[in-house]
Amino acid sequence: MTSLPIQPLSPLDGRYQAAVSGLGEYLSEAGLNRARVQVEVEWLIALTGRGAFGTSPLSDEQIDALRALYTEFSQADIEWLAEKEAVTRHDVKAVEYLVRHRLSELGLDSIAELTHFACTSEDINNLSYALTVSAAVQEVWLPGLRRVIDILRELAHEHRDAAMLSHTHGQPATPSTMGRELAVTAWRLERIVTQIQQTEYLGKFSGATGTFSAHVVAEPEANWPALSKEFVEGLGLTWNPLTTQIESHDWQAELYGKVSHANRVLHNLATDIWTYISMGYFTQIPQAGATGSSTMPHKINPIRFENAEANLELSSAILDSLAATLVTSRMQRDLTDSSAQRNIGVGFGHSLLALDNLARGLREISLNRAALLADLDANWEILGEAIQTVIRAEVAAGRSSIEDPYALLKELTRGKRIGQADLIAFVEKLEIGDEAKARLLALTPATYVGLSAELVDFLP
Asked: Which of 14, 53, 246, 430 is deepest in the core (most CB within 10 A)?
């Protein structure tokens, strides 16, 4: 048997690549290297801008030419770095050599020794990860989540008055509306979006063990913490003044925890929609050319929601592992975070794939209002809650002397199927006021939805 050509090992880089390719712009090895080049270049510009060690500020043309190294980062640069790293066996050192190479091409060899000046690799890496993760979240992952929320909001308003039987503990319960149920999920996700938008993306830039030791030896009079703060904040990040060799990664643990939380809310959505489909509450819209089963031609399988389930579980497993691993580093530095962080894109990739499937799946279902109404009409006993609550109110108002209304309705309805005629006969015999009795006699399972429709308007 001949060997296959080299194949992508992860399905994210194979069959699902189109759905998650946007993340590759930031969370791939190339995206990380581009950010590393950005940090190295901006540090050079910052040092020369303050005339460090007798240098002169670069001209606007020279700055533009240097910044083009990352703004126009190309396949040729990716290949150059790969070849250099094969020799150096060190990814950040390869980036340093790339910058030095470009300086030479630009006739700026005189400032070459300021490349990577007083930096440890983690100074470059932590800022690069903060830049790439921030961009991936804001530009790719959050828009994917917002797409799902927008669809949920649209469906919530469309189905705001679609009465449905609730199933607490899997048993018939006080009705809601399908719109209100979808609004609950949208509301939960909106809160998480707000929390994620408040994420602080921290960065350190303080040398080998976070002490500015080499900086001070090189230039004792400089205010290195102030320069470090200005530099980090100039990249759009939040400065962390107290670190070891590494930035402590607490912001990453916090962010991944929130993304994992969103995953679990979405997982709840996927399993609920799957269940509603199995109950006939939703029907699936046939897609031209699609095959549901290889042997049963009638089937339309809820694959979008099943795919989402699996990928949300994988995403949370990876992100939870990252959150747990990254906050621990032996003494001043160990390398476990380096290997772990290379999987950030995998964690976000599985989540983004799930979001894509959920958005598609929600567009491929249709509410079966007739099924909802039939289920309601088969469960008149759920009005027991309404009747006993009205009796209590009547007793409190002095219009009834019925004792223990709950026990009275429990005897009538618990574990039994009670039809409309049975409840009407029961209500007509009750010792309550005429107005209350009229309200109960007019009540049906389909109208016993409280303020479900109005609650949808609380969605932002």
From this structure: 246
What's the pLDDT at 319?
98
Q: Residues with Cβ < 8 Å from 366, sequence gap 6 or more?
A: 282, 283, 284, 285
165: enclosing H helix or E strand: strand 163-168
Higher-confidence position of 342 and 7: 342
- How many Å separate Cα 435 from the centre of its chain? 50
* H-assigned helices in 303-444: 303-326, 336-341, 344-362, 369-377, 384-396, 405-413, 420-428, 434-442
What is the SS3 assignment for 268? helix
Catalytic residues: 169, 293
Helix axes 29-49, 75-88, angle to 10 degrees: 90
Give the chain's radius of gyration (CA, Å): 31
Eight-state DSSP code of residue 168: E
Q: Is 421 exposed, middle or buried (0-12, 13-18, 19+ CB in 10 A)?
A: exposed
Residue 163 CA to residue 92 CA, distance in Å, equals 60
Residues 6+ apart with CB under 8 A from 51: 57
Long-range own/partner contacts, residues 232-235 (CB < 8 A, 24 or more apart) = 232/127, 232/203, 232/204, 232/205, 234/42, 234/46, 235/38, 235/39, 235/42, 235/127, 235/130, 235/131, 235/203
So what's the pLDDT on residue 293? Answer: 54
Q: For position 355, what pLDDT does the model report?
A: 98
Pairing of strands 238-239, 202-203: parallel
At 87-102, the pLDDT tens digits run 999 999 999 999 999 9
| DSSP codes of every residue in 200-221 | --EE----TTSS-HHHHHH-TT
Cβ atoms within 10 Å, residue 180: 26
The CA distance from 153 to 189, in Å, is: 11
Domains and CATH numbers, the chain: 18-119 (1.10.275.10), 123-286+299-368 (1.20.200.10), 380-444 (1.10.40.30)
Q: Is 245 exposed, middle or buried (0-12, 13-18, 19+ CB in 10 A)?
A: buried
Dig out the tokens for 393 from the structure. 């109110």
E strand or H helix at 255, and its extent? helix 250-279
Least confident of 126-135, 143-152, 380-389: 380-389
